């Protein structure tokens, strides 16, 4: 398994109403990050503060062209250190990564998904709970 290359597939796929934030995330944003809290509506995230409508992409996701590969983009997150739990805990399983076409996976991971899951759990042990 390789390091994340910021392909953005997870961010784009789950931006459209498929993410949630914990009550703790929302409470923290309301207290310390009102610019993020502005995009929360009735406990749901990524709603336009102006229209109140669900946004199709996370408002804090930024796309940048890769100068070495002009046909390929990479993505950054303006709220990386304050992102919701769903983002912090992703990816949970190798199966999820396969479904999402995650570019962290390598051929060996696909041939031995149980070992890949162990590698994933080790890689992300500081950013999310283990899901055995």
Topology (elements, then pairings):
Layout: H1 9-15, H2 23-32, H3 34-37, E1 40-41, E2 44-45, E3 61-66, E4 69-77, H4 85-89, H5 94-99, H6 107-111, H7 113-123
Antiparallel strand pairs: 1-2, 3-4
Describe what is shown at a glance.
With 132 residues, this protein is of the alpha+beta class. The chain has helices at residues 9-15, 23-32, 34-37, 85-89, 94-99, 107-111, 113-123; strands at residues 40-41, 44-45, 61-66, 69-77. The protein has a domain at 9-90.
Report on this structure.
This protein has a domain at 9-90. The chain has seven helices and four strands; from the N terminus they run αααββββαααα. The protein is an alpha+beta fold and 132 residues long. The protein has a two-stranded antiparallel sheet with strand order 1-2. A hairpin with a 2-residue loop joins β3 and β4 (69-77). The radius of gyration is 16 Å and the shape is globular.
